[in-house]
Amino acid sequence: MTVRDLSELGERVRAAARVLGTSSDAQRCDALRAAAARLRDQASVVLTANASDIERARSDGATTTAIDRLTLSDQRLEAMAQGLETVAMLSNPLGERVDSKTLANGLRVERVRVPLGVVGIIYENRPNVTSDAAALCLRAANAAFLRGSSGALASNQAIVSALRFGLAQAGLPEDAISLVEDVSHETAVHFMQLNGVIDCLIPRGGPSLIASMRENATVPYVLDGDGICHVYVDAAANLDMAERIVINAKVQRPGVCNAMESLVLHADIAQELLERLSISMPEVSLLGDERAVALLPSLHAAAEGDFDREFLDLIASVKIVDGLPEAIAFINEHGSGHSEAIVTDDGVAAEMFLAHVDAAAVLHNASTRFVDGGELGLGAEVGISTQKLHARGPMGLEALTSVRWVIRGEGQVRS
Amino acid sequence: MTVRDLSELGERVRAAARVLGTSSDAQRCDALRAAAARLRDQASVVLTANASDIERARSDGATTTAIDRLTLSDQRLEAMAQGLETVAMLSNPLGERVDSKTLANGLRVERVRVPLGVVGIIYENRPNVTSDAAALCLRAANAAFLRGSSGALASNQAIVSALRFGLAQAGLPEDAISLVEDVSHETAVHFMQLNGVIDCLIPRGGPSLIASMRENATVPYVLDGDGICHVYVDAAANLDMAERIVINAKVQRPGVCNAMESLVLHADIAQELLERLSISMPEVSLLGDERAVALLPSLHAAAEGDFDREFLDLIASVKIVDGLPEAIAFINEHGSGHSEAIVTDDGVAAEMFLAHVDAAAVLHNASTRFVDGGELGLGAEVGISTQKLHARGPMGLEALTSVRWVIRGEGQVRS
């Protein structure tokens, strides 16, 4: 596929988006349900395609984790099909009148929620992103322009084929869900520069993808960035609760972006909590600052840069502070703007933390693991934004819409 | 100023933004009023600085228009001071609870409107942008990081000095309004790449600035792009109203982005309306497609590309269509997503147009000139966004805020 082919494909996706923009919500839900049925019907086809991707990954020497991410099963396919059906059951995000007023000159002004148009998704190995992201795009009447990784190409093609079948069944243009099948580096960069085609580009992947987006993307985008999440345990914390929250935030699923990477402890409770944690989560390697190591010599010493790392593993850094202001300043310096929690029984300290820590989500007496579209009632998510524009935190259907002005008059002109 | 100096300045602006984020709304309003008073007190200082900018522009051979944009006067300074006071009278945009709910697990979840942090503004000659933009940033508790043009440097320095005086009077950090005083091309590019410092960058300028943003910017940004605005006059239009709206949209202020650049006429009414317009707005040069020229041979023939040009002058292109679908398709192809109007007495046609034309603002029986923050009741605007993310159309205080998640629990962990 040449760069020109990609632009031509983009024009087809754009044309499909215009048709989708005039479709009914019932049609779009029908398409989602028909796609779910097709995915179940075609399970063996999808799994065969997936097996070929897995075989190539194995012969290329991929890690066990990478192969696990790539692997589909009957169970995972059923979860994808159910995901499509769940999105069809959410509330229609479009048409909402965000606000309205009548001006002194009689103009009736309202702001109305509408589709974005073409949403580009550029993502790494997980093939389930193909159906999860396309479903949310479709429900918000956006065309989904998908650029997955080379390693999952056969799987993605099989999934997209089922999704397009659903579109056709509902009388919608198949190009409204399109996959870039040339997965070279060159087309990835060109994809990020399809101005006039892509209205919003969302990357789902690691730091190198994010860096490439910053360097190359010229279309509007929303970054789903790192999660360097902290839990701060205050002097006034209930230590049983703190222990429960810290363990949950670190251990329940260490490889995800809303897991805790850094533990910030008030000096007054640090020793007791560290001693408890060393017993209750022995599988976690704690990397302490000097004060932490002095309190509990069995800790490893944190190296340069450990407080700015997203471990995505059973590792956490530990910082001791003398009070809330130091904790807030530390988190604002080292956090990635994702999710930050305080554990305390002191309501004033909690509100201070919630007001002054600068992140997409701030939590009091709850695990950072709750910062997730499903947990927060969005139904599904297309990613978690760590930037401040457009959408912040978990991005559901609303993040895939735009708001525009509709103005009705009787011949008014400006004087 | 080296690139390193700019980064250091950025760190100071960022630190000031954190302090501003914890200030009270009353303090920020006090700062605006004190800045207005200072601007009046220091009028002669500002005008002297402005005179030196004008003198240099003259000796550099600047056009009359460029010099007019650059020139301040007692009247313009007073308008700037009043602008600061107006922003102090708007509603506080911060703290609004956008939505809230209690989850089944007892977590209380809300989304709250908060400042963006550091807003960068990169702009061309008009010195009034300095105070207008800084005022909106300040009211929304954002630091304003300003990078004006070299041609207005002395004026901008004098204005910023008055604004910083206001900050100091209100006990706020002066660095919360900072001007980049090295106006080389190199620092402009570096400014667009201050990741970790600038949370949102807004350009105010022409096509070359926008192109440079797309190419160079790595920080999040919102584009204030071209306005290739259309007025479509339907077969069912009241021609008196249509004539009034077309004249207003084209002639009232041709050099602004919400002026009409292209007139789309239904064939049934084209000849009559063109004949009327050739009499009622003889100063406007109409560039017609073949059919338009056939109807009124006194029209000029439109050249290749004339339907994609923002003239910003007493010029408009004219396209004849056979019906509403053709008009909508034409506008979606040639518009820049700014403001698009239909004139018709046919309510069904109007709603079809409003629903299917893809632009920041769509209007029925009203002049495109109303698409302006002041006219639409925003109080003031920092620009007009032609992109679909974050803010679309006129950007007021709300566009300078972010929404984040605040989650309160009693020790909940995820299972």
Q: Rg of chain A, please?
A: 24 Å
Question: Largest contact between protein chains?
Answer: A-B, 67 and 67 residues
| Gap between N and C termini of chain A | 54 Å
Indicate the percent of residues in helices of chain A. 40-55%
Which consecutive residue ranges of chain A, at least 5 long each, have pLDDT under 50?
none
CATH topology group of the largest domain in chain A: Aldehyde Dehydrogenase, Chain A, domain 1
β-sheet strand percentage of chain A: 15-25%
Largest sheet of chain A: 7 strands, parallel
The overall strand count of chain A is 16
Query: What oligomeric assembly is this protein in?
Result: homodimer
Spatial ordering of strands, largest sheet of chain A? 10-9-11-8-7-12-13
Give the topology string of chain A: H per helix, E per strand.
HHHHHEEEHEHEHEHEHEHEHEEHEHEEEE
Whole-number count of domains of chain A:
2
Instruction: Count every helix of chain A, treating DSSP H or I runs of 4 or more residues as helices.
Output: 14
Entry keywords:
Aldehyde Dehydrogenase, Chain A, domain 2; Aldehyde Dehydrogenase, Chain A, domain 1; 415 residues; 2 domains; alpha/beta; homodimer
